[in-house]
Structure formats: structure tokens, C-alpha cells
Design goal:
This protein is mainly α and 236 residues long. It is 71% helix and 3% strand. A two-stranded antiparallel sheet has the order 1-2.
């Protein structure tokens, strides 16, 4: 038999359903708090079997994207970042090497992005970074506020680099970045050190000094990773 036109394996179907539901959420067709149609109706609408749909919904529930309420129905969660990266905390708690691999990737990509941003950043973008920097400095005693300012500052640097492919890569690891920051922002003294690092990064970008921007970003990521290693060390 010619295998060219064989049907998809059944195991692939739940993944396709999950991808489709995620697309509906990303495209705002499904919003936080929305109730999904009943399982039987949804399976008919999507022309899939109920077991395949159920498997896809279970996967989304594990990611905290949907919530199945017994006797009530299935709802899209609030989609708050804290909720979405809860499963990633579990991954990191099982194997901290995942976290260090993330830093390795960030040091390759974000250092290069800082270089590009220094060459391409506009006066308006520098003003936006300085506003983020002010927020960081004001939030060194407030981990949650600092987290928001930190994410915004790094996001603006990525945007200033004007490289859509590298930006897409950073977007793809954004949830990992959120989860890692939620752990590191609570390390004693780290926020003050990170705020100082942010000052050095922004100063280099403002001077359009690509080499200094690279060094400042690398120093920043090395500082955070080293503090994390110190915390994990038996002597810590």
C-alpha cells in the first residue's frame, strides 16, 4: 500500500486540537473567563472525537490555560503570568540545569541584541528605557514591581534591536524567562545589584556604544546566574 496518503496518526490529533484552541486564545476569540461549549458540542464543532478533545483539554488544564469546573463547565483561566508559569516552577524544581541552560541561551541572544540595540536605538526608545530604569530603581524593595519593570526593560531592548527573527526567539522563551525571574527576584540583595546593572546597560545604549552594551548585558546575566548558583551551593 502507498503510504503517501495515509491518514494522520490518532496520537497527533490531541496536539492539533490543543494548537487550535491556543490560536483562538491568542487571536482573542477566546478571552480570560470565557466558557467553552460543552464537550459533546465542542467535539462536534471541531469534528473530532470526544476522547481526543478530552486529552487536549487535559493538557491545557495542566498548563493552567483552562479550568475544568465539575458540574459547571470548562473556562479559560485569567491567563495571568503568575498562573501560567506555575508548571515551569515544577520543571525547574526537578532539574535546575534547565534554568542554567536558559541563562546560556539568554547570554548568546540577549548580548547580541544589546549590541544591535546600541546601534539602532532611537531617542524615543532611550526615553522609554530610562522610564523603565526609574521604575526598577524605585522597586528594589518590591519584587513583584521590579519583575514587571525588568521584563519591560528587556522587552524594549529586544524591540530596539529590530531583528524580527531574534525577537521571535525571545518571545518563544518568554514563559521560561518569567518563571526564572520569579525565582531570582527573591534572592537577597539581587534586586539592588540588578538595578545597578540596568543603569550600566541603559547608559551604554544611550551612548550607542555597542561593545559596552554587550559587556553590560553579559555582566548582568552572569551576576544573576552566579547568585543563583551561590544559592544552590551546599555552602550557601
Amino acid at each position: 500500500m502507498d503510504k503517501t496518503f495515509e491518514p494522520f496518526e490518532k496520537a497527533v490529533l490531541p496536539k492539533k486540537i490543543t494548537t487550535r484552541l491556543l490560536s483562538l486564545i491568542k487571536e482573542k476569540h477566546l478571552k480570560p473567563g470565557d466558557k467553552l461549549p460543552p464537550e459533546r458540542e465542542l467535539a462536534t464543532m471541531m469534528q473530532v472525537s470526544r476522547p481526543s478533545l478530552r486529552e487536549a483539554l487535559q493538557a491545557l488544564a495542566l498548563m493552567n490555560i483552562i479550568e475544568v469546573r465539575q458540574g459547571d463547565g470548562t473556562y479559560v483561566t485569567s491567563l495571568e503570568p503568575e498562573l501560567l508559569f506555575e508548571p515551569l516552577h515544577f520543571v525547574f524544581s526537578l532539574d535546575d540545569s534547565t534554568l542554567h541552560q536558559l541563562f546560556e541561551a539568554r547570554k548568546i541572544v540577549e548580548v547580541a541584541l544589546a549590541d544591535l540595540a546600541a546601534q539602532r536605538i532611537t531617542a524615543e526608545e532611550i526615553a522609554g528605557l530610562e522610564a523603565c530604569l526609574t521604575q526598577s530603581l524605585q522597586a528594589v524593595e518590591d519584587p513583584e514591581a521590579f519583575l514587571r519593570a525588568d521584563l519591560e526593560l528587556h522587552k524594549r531592548i529586544v524591540a530596539a534591536a529590530r531583528n524580527p527573527i531574534m525577537q521571535r526567539f525571545m518571545d518563544s522563551i518568554s514563559q521560561l524567562g518569567l518563571a526564572s525571574r520569579s525565582r531570582t527576584t527573591h534572592i537577597p540583595g539581587l534586586l539592588h545589584h540588578s538595578a545597578e546593572d540596568h543603569c550600566a546597560i541603559v547608559a551604554a545604549l544611550k551612548r550607542h556604544d555597542a561593545e559596552a552594551a554587550r559587556e553590560a548585558m553579559l555582566d548582568h546575566l552572569n551576576h544573576v546566574e552566579q547568585r543563583l548558583k551561590d544559592l544552590e551551593s551546599p555552602q550557601a
